[in-house]
Amino acid sequence: MSTAASVLERCAALGRVSEEPDRLVRRYATPAMREAYALVGGWMRDLGLEVREDAAGNLIGRRDGPGKTLVLGSHLDTVVDAGRYDGPLGVLAAIAVLERLWDRALPYAVEVIGFADEEGVRFGTSFLGSSAVAGRFAPAWLAITDEDGVTMADALRAFGGDPDAIASAARRRQDLLAYCEVHIEQGPVLERRGAPVGVVTTITGQTHAEVAFLGEAGHAGTVPMNARRDALAAAAEWMLAVESVARRRQGTVATVGQLTVEPGARNVIPGEARMTLDVRHTSNAVLREAVADLRAEAQRIASSREVELDWDARGETAAVPTSADLTELLADAVEAMGHAPERLPSGAGHDAVSMATLTDIAMLFVRCERGISHNPAEAVAEADVALALDVLERFLGELA
Ligand SMILES: [Zn+2]
User: In Å, what is the CA distance from 31 to each residue of 89, 252, 258, 269?
Assistant: First the structure.
């Protein structure tokens, strides 16, 4: 069997390890995650890696070497009703490439990390595992409870981790050489360009907000059109502005993904319309400008319709560039395999975001069918995975 076929077979085996019988869901510190670790940890041991788990529950396989440590990896948790490649592909590709390189002396140590939680499904925290490795785990998170009322601290303890020693999971900047992650693209760009793999230039910045228009509820039959303060009509006008503001600025994506209307009845004029806003761009400056524009538009619409605007900023994550040198090295490796090195930003966040606070990062995307992800229909081609393995193998050799 080819290495790529064996990676896909392992993805399939891992895809059967779930909390539920009929769909794939594998959340942080659950028995399913324990079972997944037994599988992946076993594959690491078979290869000869020294396997351990850190206090936050990340699975780590190490091959010793002189000098600093190159970290490869991705996450082993999933969303609800997940596909089998988002996360595991990066971990299993790393193990497979190390297997190929096993007899070759490298001037650095290598660790493969299967991060315990990236999706944040159980506790609503993103990048939990890699945050601990990066030394950015907030102790307050340990008190967060899941939907069954179990605190993160208790869940972690039951899993075999140590909530009192989370800080020990943090790695030292001076010990690390770099972080490289293979991941499915989760979007349609590579497929549209006809490219099997691509190198990531930046992980986009994100801004989230909750935006509400507050008008006045009233009788749908008796209040004349010119006397209304319809909150939903204001929201509708603004949602179209969101679309056009994003389209005007190259590379901006802006989404209203949730909308609730109060009181919400056929014969009542909407008094309140509340929405979520998600805006992303690779440039923090452009992102800030776009958000400022959207807010100004909302204010203008609110004033002209005599409704109130309530804008609640819910946080932002800065764009994270990948290392120019490492990305060039990856691109050279793609070219050496006879393919044009496609460059693209990542619109999704990844463990690499946390790792970037600690060391230089690089990411290799693998084309996925129709860009579908976070969905059981997630699919990759064996030939694309084979190329990704070749590229990663060459990258590791060149890094020497
Ligand atoms: Zn992922």
Answer: 21, 40, 32, 49
